[in-house]
Design a protein that fits this description.
1027 residues; mainly beta; Immunoglobulin-like; Ferric Hydroxamate Uptake Protein, Chain A, domain 1; 22-stranded antiparallel β-barrel; five-stranded mixed beta sheet; signal; TonB-linked outer membrane protein, SusC/RagA family; transmembrane; cell outer membrane
């Protein structure tokens, strides 16, 4: 009996000891112990802080997981409790244990063999309403640039490792909490709600997505709740001012008139359009109605706009239920002046109110079962002018200052405004201010993504076996109401000077009198998506060295347009049909003791975009990795090289979004007003139906073969270096056939085929340096560099061309096809002694002269025509993009800079001809300052001779107008101060630009620069955390 009591006592003691077991350890980094690190046991409410010497003591047991938060950097690591005495937990060293989000799952960083870049959410936080505006230069492998600064339309274009297709969709797949979303949905995400952001670049990382993964994948996961003793509340307020980075300078009224006279003389002799009296009257401002001199830009645009952003989020929960809830309000305004209130009861400046809500709830039904509900809601209410802001900007710049006043004085006989205008065969089309105030457009859009996810562990059956099921419904809808009033315009018909020095004048109504009433139109649009996914996963280690991660995946997707608007019955039919995809995929990931890594993926996907028999495709990939730093022989180098991994991957990926339309394999027959052409010379027409497009059941998706070789390293516990070289050959690229002979009856009929091929290759590198010099001083440095170039390998064009310079094979995508300029003609002798230029019209001294390109036999034909064009310059999409910058923390202060630049990109200046096609456009100041003229016969001038109308010889694409689009920007600067649980900061975006191109912001690309300019931003912010 006493023996039983003794045994019972021992067992009870052991049980109590097990229940009250405590985990001990010391939190350190490269400087030694860390005081104030937060240590918590995952899925419990247990939490402690480390002592001054870094030590801690917390209730727990072997098999638990500890989360350790660095109080300085707020970085987190998770470690397994293998024994109660953990010893030293090095936050830096254990970063390799961080989980990286991959396709359909997560992996520890050290076991990842694909090319994946993870971005810290705080690095995505810039004073902008669009998340994509933070990508440029910060993420290796991502090409991003911003073409416009117009609120609501100022998001960046972005690509992963460049562009590999001619006609297909080139943008990456974007996955938000497991479901595909648009780039617009991505831009609406607040960085404060992001838990992780990963960019998947090679075939191993993207093959599981099959026909959706050819262009890379971005995966965003929003924050979840946490088992906390009390909720954690964050509040952020930002207020920022935007000013244009650059506004084109125009000439004054008098200078415009003199230049117009010069242009008139260049075309023909005769009386100039403007007399000296008119020029003097304008210059001396004798009368604003007879001698107007209007600065249209200042009439329409302000110098700045003011925006605000507020975010509130709360995170908390208990053992059974946890939650994360966030609300963001973003208010954007434009630079337009509220002039409509001078004439009407509405203000039509750009005014956007955007509300974003994220609600995530996890219910832990047991230790093995969890249900999650995620709800993302975006509500946007916006007002804009009825005329687009880009058009208004162009009207304000193009309208010359002297043709008419803004408006004439009020007339008691009419109740409307008498707007100024100009009449004649060459009519300046718009009064810019009248266009601005004539109406407005109101729109309201809503987007809801609801995701229900179920996770079930089957450890009680098979250790490591689990199942995940996900169902998502996404709905977007938009309603737009347009209200526009016509307006009446008048012109000056005659005037006379009065004895008192004033003027008497008469006006004439242009056209017929309009009733000034707001006319209303409206429209709706929208779409919805239903996505379902199931994953069976097996993750287990054997003998602590054989680590397996096996997954079997099923997914299906259905996308519907709510609006069926189309110009043809065929379009209505196509829009009414759902877009469906289906696929299965599998992954086997194995590593031996985290040293030798292998991953095999395969996706089998179907798309209804193609004919039966061509709808399914198989997309495999394989990757190998070797963690050299895990080898025993590396132990002696651990003080220098903490991590060193090499990896390589190969795989196939697909793209079914080709040609910009659906079911392009089907024939399209036109029954109306068409017929067949026939005959040897195709000169006989037969009435009747005709084929607009021939059927081709062999059409299929593009297939990209990707190869990647990478190296990842961490040195001196402070320096991380990553490097990748990559290549993709995109085959089966969809294009219109160009080599089918006309005598087969296809001259006016479209024939499509998968005939083109493009090679895309390059390299990327990133560097991250983090050094704690002492507890008061920390320095971080980040840098990235990406180089991507492409080449057309195959193109459906004649194999023999008399002018090889016109061949597509061998050139890069998005290069410029134009003439090779050789300066300006100096005199008539030079004009008469060179090849005859047949582009358009007669040439004269001061016009651009072009090179006569020889044919395949080396013979120049003595004339300049379309055969003399060549592909020139770099692509419009930059081949090089880079970024770098430091961040310094000293005690409670922090300071950061980030520079971003691009190179190997060209932009073509065009559509900037003085006076324009209507002979009334204003003149840019740089043209007035440097152009060829009889009194300035400079053959290197920035602009050829002036002409009253466009002279095609001088406006066609040529090397004369090609410019270097490279630039370096101080993209972001920020300084902050932290006091207890509050941080105050000021920041700026696009603060400085260094570029040889000075006409406008080179990031906006080519053209004439007459677009709503990109913005320079000055921001003040405040953040408070309550815990």
């Amino acid at each position: 009996m006493s023996l039983l009591k003794s045994l019972w006592s021992i067992m009870l003691f052991m049980a109590l000891a097990a229940l009250s077991a405590q985990i001990t350890g010391t939190v350190v980094d490269d400087l030694g112990p860390i005081e104030g690190a937060e240590i918590s046991v995952l899925n419990t409410e247990k939490k402690v802080l480390s002592n001054e010497d870094g030590t801690f003591l917390i209730d727990g047991k072997v098999g638990d997981k500890l989360k350790v938060v660095n109080p300085i950097t707020l970085s987190e690591v998770t470690v397994d409790v293998l024994q109660l005495n953990m010893g030293e937990i090095n936050i830096v060293t254990n970063e390799v244990q961080l989980e990286v989000v991959t396709s359909f799952g997560t992996q520890k960083k050290e076991s990842v063999v694909g090319s994946i870049t993870s971005i810290k959410p705080e690095d995505l936080r810039v004073p902008s309403a669009n998340l994509s505006n933070s990508f440029a230069g910060r993420v290796s492998g991502v090409i991003a640039y911003q073409r416009s600064g117009e609120p609501g339309r100022n998001a960046s274009d972005f690509y992963i490792r460049g562009i590999s297709t001619i006609s297909g969709v080139s943008s990456p797949l974007i996955i938000l909490d497991g479901v595909q979303v648009s780039s617009g949905d991505l831009n609406s995400i607040d960085p404060d709600v992001i838990e992780s952001f990963s960019v998947l670049k090679d075939a191993t990382a993207t093959a599981l997505y099959g026909t959706r993964g050819a262009n890379g994948v971005m995966i965003i996961t929003t924050k979840s709740g946490a088992n906390l003793n009390k909720p954690k509340i964050n509040f952020r307020l930002e207020s920022y001012v935007n000013t244009p980075t650059s506004v084109p300078k125009m000439v004054s009224g008098a200078e415009y008139m003199r230049l117009f006279n010069e242009a008139s003389d260049n075309l023909s002799s005769g009386v100039a359009r403007f007399t000296e009296d008119q020029i003097n009257g304008t210059e001396n401002a004798l009368d604003p109605y007879i001698y107007p001199n209007v600065n249209w830009y200042k009439e329409l645009f302000k110098n700045s706009s003011h925006n605000q952003k507020v975010n509130f989020n709360i995170r908390g929960g208990g053992k059974k239920l946890d939650y994360f809830m966030s609300g963001t309000y973003n208010h954007e305004t434009g630079m337009l002046r509220g002039r409509s209130t001078d004439f009407f009861s509405f203000d039509n400046n750009i005014n956007i109110h955007k509300f974003s809500f994220q609600n995530n709830i996890n219910a832990h039904l047991s230790d093995y079962s969890k249900i999650s509900l995620r709800l993302n809601t975006q509500l946007t209410n916006s007002r804009r002018p009825s005329v687009s802001s880009n058009d208004l900007f162009q009207y304000a710049i193009r309208a010359n200052p002297v043709d008419f006043p803004i408006m004439f004085p009020k007339d008691s006989t009419v109740s409307y405004v008498r707007w100024g205008a100009f009449s004649g065969s060459n009519v300046a089309p718009y009064n810019p201010l009248a266009s601005l105030v004539s109406g407005y457009s109101d729109s309201f859009s809503s987007m809801v993504i609801a995701t229900l996810e179920f996770n079930q562990k089957f450890d009680f059956l098979v250790k490591g076996l689990s199942f995940n099921a996900l169902a998502t419904f996404k709905n977007w809808s938009s309603t737009t109401a347009n209200r526009v009033a016509p307006y009446n315009t008048f012109r000056l018909t005659s005037f006379s000077k009065l004895p008192n020095g004033g003027y008497d004048y008469s006006l004439g109504l242009l056209g017929t009198e309009s009733n000034i009433v707001l006319n209303s139109t409206s429209g709706t649009s929208g779409d919805r998506r239903l996505y379902m996914q199931g994953i069976l996963n097996y993750n287990r280690s054997f003998n602590s060295v054989h680590n397996f991660d096996v997954a079997l995946i099923y997914n299906q997707d259905e996308f519907n347009l709510n609006n069926l608007g189309a110009s043809t019955s065929y379009g209505v039919l196509v829009n009414s049909l759902p877009r469906r995809k289906q696929g299965v995929a599998g992954r086997i990931n194995y590593n031996y003791d985290q040293k030798y890594l292998i991953e095999v993926n395969a996706g089998y996907n179907g798309s209804e975009n193609f004919a039966p028999g061509k709808r399914w495709g198989f997309f495999p990939s394989v990757a190998l990795g070797y963690n050299l730093s895990q080898e025993d022989y590396f132990a002696s180098l651990k003080n220098v090289i903490q991590d060193l991994k090499v990896r390589a991957s190969w795989g196939l990926v697909g793209n079914d979004q080709i040609g910009g339309d659906r079911f392009l394999y089907l024939a399209n027959i036109n029954l109306y007003n068409r017929g067949f052409t026939t005959g040897i010379d195709q000169n006989y027409n037969l009435n009747g139906p005709s084929y607009d497009r021939f059927q081709n059941n062999n059409l299929t998706w593009e297939v990209g073969e990707k190869i990647d070789i990478g190296l990842e390293s961490r040195l001196f516990n402070s320096l991380s270096l990553n490097f990748d070289i990559f290549q993709e050959i995109r085959r089966n690229i969809f294009q219109r056939r160009g080599t089918i002979a006309n005598y087969l009856g296809t001259s006016s009929t479209i024939v499509y085929g998968n005939t083109a091929e493009v090679k895309n290759k390059g390299f990327e590198a990133s560097v991250n340096y983090t050094k704690n010099f002492n507890r008061n001083l920390r320095v971080d440095f980040q840098g990235s560099f990406t180089y991507v170039t492409n080449e057309i390998l195959k193109y459906d064009e004649p194999s023999f061309q008399e002018y090889p310079n016109l061949k597509n094979v061998g050139r890069s995508l998005y290069t410029h096809l134009g003439y090779v300029a050789e300066g300006l003609f100096y005199d008539w002798a030079e004009v008469n002694n060179r090849a005859k230029q047949l582009i358009s019209g007669n040439v004269a001294p001061g016009d651009i002269k072009y090179k006569d390109i020889p044919n395949i036999h080396g013979v120049a034909d003595g004339q300049i025509d379309s055969n003399d064009r060549v592909y020139m310059g770099y692509p419009t999409v930059p081949e090089i993009i880079y970024g770098f910058g430091p961040n310094v923390q000293y005690k409670k202060w922090d300071f950061g800079l980030y520079f971003q630049g691009v190179a190997h990109t060209s932009l073509a200046v065009n559509n900037i001809s003085p006076f324009g096609t209507n002979a009334r456009d204003n003149v840019l100041q740089w043209i007035a300052d440097s152009h060829w003229s009889p009194s300035n016969q400079d053959v290197t001038a920035a602009h050829p001779r002036l002409t009253k109308n466009d002279h095609a010889n001088n406006t066609v694409v040529s090397s004369y107008w090609l410019r270097n689009g490279a630039f370096l920007k101080l993209k972001n600067a920020e300084i902050g101060y932290t006091y207890k649980n509050m941080r105050f900061y000021i920041s700026g975006v696009n603060l400085l630009t260094f570029s040889k191109f000075k006409l406008w912001d080179p990031e906006q690309g080519g053209g004439n620069g007459l677009r709503y300019p990109t913005q320079r931003t000055f921001n003040a912010g405040f953040k408070m955390t309550i815990n």
